[in-house]
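Notes to self, Plant heme peroxidase family profile domain-containing protein:
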Amino acid sequence: MAQCSSFSSRLYSYGTNGGKDPSMDPAYLATLSTQCPQSGASQPVAMDPVTPNTFDTNYYANVAANRGLLASDQALLADNSTAAQVLGYTTSPGTFQTDFASAMVAMGAIGVLTGNQGTIRTNCRVVG
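result:
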């Protein structure tokens, strides 16, 4: 899920001309505009509107179809390497599951800082 405020610039004030993000699927853009009116509503929107409560590869299918909710999602197609990975995951759910499991194991091996070794953020977007 993402709050409307996290992506509303793609709907109403994208780029120097302040229009709609041209990289977005027009039908998806219209749907998002009804869910997040320009008046500033900040409700949560599913990152995957097709299967929002299922752990599957539909997120990648959405990105491949220019329906990435966040700009960072859609940017995955801008690089040949990440675009190939996105497209690969849409056609090979097993590869995604294997890669995801490996990534979770690797993340679990990251050392946790304790005591005064690290910083606890009260706002994840702000360091310090």
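- The chain has six helices and two strands.
- The first helix runs from residue 8 to 12.
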